[in-house]
Amino acid sequence: MLTENAQPFNILLVEDELADAHLVRTAIRECKAHCNLHHVVDGLEALAFLRREGDRYGSQPDLILLDLNMPRMNGREFLAAVKADQSLASIPVVVLTTSDAERDVATVYKLGAAGFVTKPVDMREFIEAMENLLGYWLTLTRLPKRE
Amino acid sequence: MGKTTTQNEGSNFSALYRATAAAVLVWIASIGGFLFWDIHVAKEHAENLARQEVRVRFNKDMAFRSWVTSHGGVYVPVDEHTRPNPYLNVPERDIETRSGKKLTLMNPAYVMRQVMVDFAGQYGVPGHLTSLKLMNPANAPDEWERGALLRFEQGEREIAEFAEINGQPYLRQIGAFVVEPGCLKCHAEQGYKVGDVRGGISISVPMQPFLDNVYRDIRKLLLPIGAIWVLGLALILTLMLQVRRRIEVQQASEFSLRKSSAEISRANADLTRFADVAAHHLMEPTRRLSSYTQLLERGLAAYPEVKADQDVQEPLQYLQRDAGRLRTLVRDIQLYLAADQPRGEVRREDANLVLANATQRLSAQVQQARAVISAEPLPPAIIDSQRLMDLFVILLDNAFKHGRPLNEQAVPQIGVSGERDGTLSRYRVSDTGPGIPAEYRERVFGIFETLHGAGGGSSGIGLAIARRIVESRHGKIWIEDSAQGGTMVVFELPDGE
Question: Which residues contact B97 (CB under 8 A, 6 or more apart)?
Fold first, then answer.
């Protein structure tokens, strides 16, 4: 159902936990979305990737899925850096985390997040959540044109 | 904090010192007052004695003078000491007896003067006969007597007063003597009529001996009274020191209590924080354990013969069950830790509305349990609606799970009621189940206590959470028998901030 777009959808996953990255990848595969997933393990690596890709290929991801608790540069710092960078600020960032603390929710929206999703514990619910999320961003929403 | 404590101690002691000073003042005033009163009474007594004495002497003098007057004077032999009175001009002032003895007439004034002068030593008290119209200048009145004589002319007849003579205290009494027929014999020439005031007899009693008595009595009193005074002061000071020591001990123990209570609450806060962080970090692997167990199960779907194998199926089932249990556990720990903090504004909440929302949220369980919930009108409570909702959800959920009637056919009846009681609101949630034996009614509020063994999707922390919510609002929660013999959980939420 999510395969209508001819061009694949580029997603950058910023997640330090390989097991969680694997779950996201599995969920995306399960819901058969037509997209490329690139995985980096922290904010610094993500920034480096975004700047390198932007320079080299001129193709930025359509969506960033961001974990909050990571070593070196955590999700909040990364989010602030992205929104402060004019060439990156237009990329929607959805926070995907285990936390459901009200404080975190308010903070990331203030920092410019496009969404806050708590990872469901149940695998079926997790897949459903990814399906909804990608459905929203791939088909329902119009995104800025890739540079 | 330390500064405030010192200030408090200072003010406590200053109150004690003020009270002590007041006690000392009252004590000094009482003893002083007593002494003053005693002196006053003793003096009065001495004065009365003096008055009595002066009156006796005065009356005697008056009687003596009257006696002389009544005889129109008396004739006495003339000698060196008793010369004819040059101021007395009457016929037959000087007479001679047949045997040639010379006699002269002594008028009352002369007699009195001689007696008073000659026997002053026996009298002990100087007496005096005086007048404003003198015949003998030696009888001239002194200042006080002149004043008294002038007052006699205004109609007074007797005056007794304390006055000083040569700087010494005296009780002085002066009585008027009135012109009688006998007086005119000598005084007619001065123009007196019968009834006129002729002059006065004055008596003066020195007060010093009486006062000396008073002072001696008082000096005798001074030692015991002084001893009592000192004893009283010592008692007051001892009491003050005792009280001060008690206050010091109390303050010291209060201080150490405050200190240890601050340490306890800090340790408690640390532990809570630790538990919170630990639970948060436990949640991630717990979630992944669940997810991967499910992924494993899904992956095995491609290998039905492996999945059907008992050695695979059973471990997988346990893995799933424990993953779920771990999830509930960590989730409940987080709920428990958060239960003492309000989630939203603490205000007057309509409990009826909150109960309706809770029932709505539990609609699946209500249907599954085929339970009937009957709610009476509930009083409002001061709390945040989120946690009031949690309370009702926990208690209703418990009633569904543990309040099933023994008779499987019977419909579970869950009753919710409540009332205001002074400044608190009381709520009851009762079921028609088997009830909880008295010895377990306190235990079920402990963490991870359940009376029904493992499983059932409950970690046994619900009542502990409920208690933490209620106690954070300074309320109470406990279990009673319901009217139908089931369990009735009662909780009270006091008003206040």
Answer: B103
Model pLDDT for residues B61-89, shown as the tens digit of each residue: 888 888 888 888 899 999 888 888 888 87
Please check the confidence at residue B5 and state whether its pLDDT lies above 50: no
pLDDT in tens, B307-318: 888 888 888 888
Distance CA B10, CA B18 (A): 12
CB contact under 8 A, B287 and A99: no
How far B298 CA lies from chain A's nearest CA (Å)?
10
Give dist(CA B189, CA B311) in Å, integer.
165
Residue located via tokens 């532990």: B271
CB-nearest to A123 from B284, B286, B291 is: B291
Q: Specify the CATH class of A9-138 in words.
A: alpha beta
Q: What is the CATH number of the domain that holds B373?
A: 3.30.565.10
Query: What's A32's DSSP letter?
Result: T
Residue in chain B lying closest to A20 (CA): B288
Q: Which two tokens stand for residue B402?
A: 């543990």
User: Per-residue DSSP letters for B173-202?
Assistant: EEEEEE--GGGHHHHGGGT--TTSEEEEEE
Instruction: Collect all residues of chain A within an 8 Å Cβ-Cβ radius of residue B292.
Output: 19, 23
Q: Per the domain annotation, does B225 fall within a domain?
A: no
Instruction: Check CB contact of A126 with chain B, cutoff 8 Å.
Output: yes
How large is the ipTM?
Answer: 0.71
Look at A121 and B295 and tell me if their CB atoms are within 8 Å. no
- The answer to whether the CB of A9 falls within 8 A of the CB of A134 is yes
Structure tokens belonging to residue A127: 């897949």
Bridge partners of B102?
Answer: B96
* A residues 28-57 closer than 8 Å to B (CB): none
Number of domains in chain B: 2
Q: Find which of B282, B287, B300 to mutate to test the A interface (most A CBs within 10 Å of its CB).
A: B287
Domain range for B86 is: 2-206
**Is residue B283 in some structural domain?**
no
Angle value at C-alpha B65, between B61 and B70, nearest 5 degrees: 145
A118, A67 contact by CB (below 8 A): no
Q: Which chain A residue lies closest to B297 (C-alpha atoms)?
A: A123
Select from B186, B206, B226 the last residue of a domain. Answer: B206
Burial B258-277 (b: 16+ CB within 10 A, else e): eeeeeeeeeeeeeeeeeeee
Domain map (residue ranges) of chain A: 9-138
d(CA B280, CA B3): 40
User: Residue B161: in which H helix or E strand, if any?
Assistant: strand B158-165
Sequence length of chain B is 497
Say if B199 falls within a structural domain.
yes
Q: Looking at the partner chain, which of B283, B294, B295 has a beta carbon nearest the beta carbon of A98?
A: B283
Contact B427/B417 with Cβ under 8 angstroms? yes
How far is Cα B452 from Cα B458, in angstroms, rounded to an integer?
10
A20: chain B residues, CB-CB within 8 Å: 284, 288
